[in-house]
Every structure is written in C-alpha cells, then in structure tokens.
C-alpha cells in the first residue's frame, strides 16, 4: 500500500487582542502548528502533527522528506528516523527536523491503523485501554488581569479531578497561586506545578519548601531543559517527583534524562519527540528504569489524539494495582480553536474521564473545511 501524496499544512490562529496566555517564560499570542496529510493509492488518509514553527516546518517537510515519502509503504515507518540521521548526518537530530519527522511518523501510524482496522494503541502493543484520567492544564500566566481562582473553578465545574498550574514568577506568587488552587480543588485532587524552567536550582528548592503543605504531585521543568547539571542539582535538593520532557527531542536526549536518573516522569510530546516510533523507544527505556511516562500536550486535536493513543499504550509496569496511580493525561484548558474546531467530533475531557477512541488509527475524523480556515501558507 504505497503513499501517493504528502501535504504539509501550516495552521495558525491569533488569539484576541490582549488575551495571550503562557507561563513564567512568557506569553503566546498565537496558536500554530503544522498538520501532515498522507494519502495512499486506495484513498486512505493519515493525519499527523509536527509541533514547531508552522511555515518553516511545512517547508522542511517538503524539502527534506516529501520525495522519500511518496512511494513509501507506511509499514516502513520506523526507517524514517534512521533516514533522518543518515541523510541528515549534520542536522538530522536537530529539533525542527525531529518535529517534522514526528508529524510524518504519526500520520503513517494513523494510516497503518486504518489499513489493519485497529486503533494505534493496540498496534503499539497496549492492553485494551478504554479511558484515561485527564488533568486540567490551566491557571496560565495571562496577558489580562485574570483572577487565578477562575480557571480552577471552571476546571472543577468541568469535572476534572486533577490540575496543573503555572508558577515560577516569584516565591510569594507561587504560594498564592498554589494555595488558591488547593483550596478550590480540595484535598483529594492531584495538583501539579509547572515552572517552565524559569528558576535556578536553589530557587526551586526554596519554592518547593514553601509549597510543602500543599501536597504537590510533581514539579515540572524546574530549570531550563538544556540545563542537565541543573536537573541533577534539583534532584539532590528536593524530595518531590520531577517531570520534564516537553522541550526534549528524540531517544538520545531522553536516554540521558533516564540514565542520569534526573527525573521521575518523562513527558515527550508526540509532535516533537519523533512521533509514535520514538515515543515507544522512550517508553521502553523509561519503564525499564522505573521512570513514569506521561505525554505533554499543548497541540491541536491531531497531536492530542496521538498523545491519547500513546498514553493508552504505556504499560503500568512495574506497578500493580496496589498502588493506585491513574494515568494522568494533560488536557490544556486555554483557548485554542486548533484543539477544539478541527474534528468532526471534538475530544471531550469533561466529567473526569477521557475516553480513548477505539476507531482505527488515531480514531478521529478531521474536518477539512475547518483546517482550511486556519491555513496560513
Ligand atoms: Mg509544561
């Protein structure tokens, strides 16, 4: 079953004036991404998402990959990474190449699922998983003067039982935000905090100490992603699970995080880390070393659907049911029509349970008219 056509589609949506959202690292005023659409001779279509600067990534897919993809059998998907390193000897491992590769890889797995009539999580060898526990990724740093209680109250109304909030802009602000969230969520909800790499190790230690009464499930990206020695220092300074990975790429970077035992949870993004093929390698390394894996999601609905399929395939091993550890799945609650509008049926995280689509491939139907509305090439 040959691929006869590849299209890279850059998408962008500008948020309303003054309504940018972000983290301690800064504010975003647009949401953008690149979709990948593959077609086979029998008319099957596979969708993927490369989560990187939209037009640049689309051009890179055209220039570097398109000629190789046309004529390729989607079942040869795992040769793509090899190609990227062999032919892209001097640059194949770089971030944007890996993002482009991710989009193509996910689209190929979507096709494979449609050809064999199975959802991707089953093909990846996962058990028949039907649901995940979504957590609200929320309480962003906002361009407008938002009451921090408001997004948490909304998360509760939507039925979330867990939330992750942005901190990292100063010790007092950290305490205020976490106290607000914990008071609204109650004692039983899981609460995580995300520094987005904005502190130095000793600042992380001080903030974690200040937050000790609030029962934080994990701290995320306490120091910048490139700062491996900083991660080791944080690990030695604090007694709390550490998560990272949304800004890391491919098996080699994750291998270092896992081998060095710098983190307790790795968070590959399916649109960046190298797609399903690479995420599976990362999951194998992580679970072998008893490191948890929870995908990062800030994508369009295509990357979101890919992350759901991947999360549903991740083994609980080595833990048994005696340790109740729901597979907490990130669900971004900031405004993003690329997440909410691109599907015929949008993915609904409300009610505290996220159903894993059981239809073939990613289990989604893309609304191509909606895709055209956000297209920017
Ligand atoms: Mg994060």
Automatic annotation (TrEMBL):
Q: Which CDD domains match?
A: MR_like
- GO biological process: any one? carbohydrate catabolic process
Where do the Mandelate racemase/muconate lactonizing enzyme C-terminal domain residues begin and end? 145-241
Q: Which cofactor does it need?
A: Mg(2+)
MF-aspect GO terms:
hydro-lyase activity; magnesium ion binding
State the UniProt keywords alphabetically.
Magnesium, Metal-binding
Put simply, this protein is called: D-galactarolactone cycloisomerase
Q: Which organism is it from?
A: Haladaptatus pallidirubidus
């Amino acid at each position: 079953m040959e691929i006869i056509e590849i299209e890279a589609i850059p998408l962008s949506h500008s948020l309303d004036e003054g309504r940018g959202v972000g983290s301690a690292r800064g504010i975003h005023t647009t949401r953008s991404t690149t979709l990948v659409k593959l077609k086979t001779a029998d008319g099957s279509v596979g969708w993927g998402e490369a989560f990187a600067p939209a037009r640049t990534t689309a051009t890179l897919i055209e220039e570097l990959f398109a000629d190789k993809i046309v004529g390729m059998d989607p079942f040869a998907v795992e040769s793509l990474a090899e190609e990227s390193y062999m032919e892209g000897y001097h640059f194949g491992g770089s971030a944007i190449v890996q993002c482009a590769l991710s989009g193509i890889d996910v689209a190929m797995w979507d096709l494979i699922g449609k050809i064999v009539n199975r959802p991707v999580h089953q093909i990846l060898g996962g058990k028949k998983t039907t649901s995940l526990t979504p957590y609200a990724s929320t309480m962003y740093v906002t361009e407008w003067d938002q009451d921090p209680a408001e997004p948490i109250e909304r998360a509760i109304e939507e039925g979330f039982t867990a939330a992750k909030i942005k901190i990292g802009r100063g010790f007092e602000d950290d305490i205020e935000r976490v106290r607000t969230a914990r008071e609204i969520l109650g004692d039983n909800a899981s609460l995580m905090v995300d520094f987005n790499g904005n502190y130095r190790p000793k600042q992380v230690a001080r903030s974690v100490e200040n937050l000790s009464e609030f029962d934080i499930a994990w701290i995320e990206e306490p120091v910048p992603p490139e700062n491996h020695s900083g991660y080791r220092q944080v690990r030695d300074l604090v007694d709390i699970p550490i998560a990272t990975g949304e800004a890391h790429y491919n098996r080699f970077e994750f291998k270092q995080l896992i081998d060095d035992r710098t983190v307790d949870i790795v968070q590959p993004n399916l649109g960046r880390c190298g797609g399903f093929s690479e995420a599976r390698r990362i999951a194998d390394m992580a679970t072998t070393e008893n490191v948890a894996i929870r995908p990062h999601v800030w994508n369009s609905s295509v990357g979101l659907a890919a992350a759901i399929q991947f999360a549903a395939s991740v083994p609980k091993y080595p833990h048994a049911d005696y340790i109740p550890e729901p597979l907490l799945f990130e669900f971004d609650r900031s405004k993003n029509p690329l997440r909410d509008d691109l599907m015929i049926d949008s993915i609904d995280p409300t009610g505290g349970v996220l159903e894993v689509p059981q239809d073939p491939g990613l289990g989604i139907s893309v609304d191509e008219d909606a895709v055209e509305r956000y297209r920017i090439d």
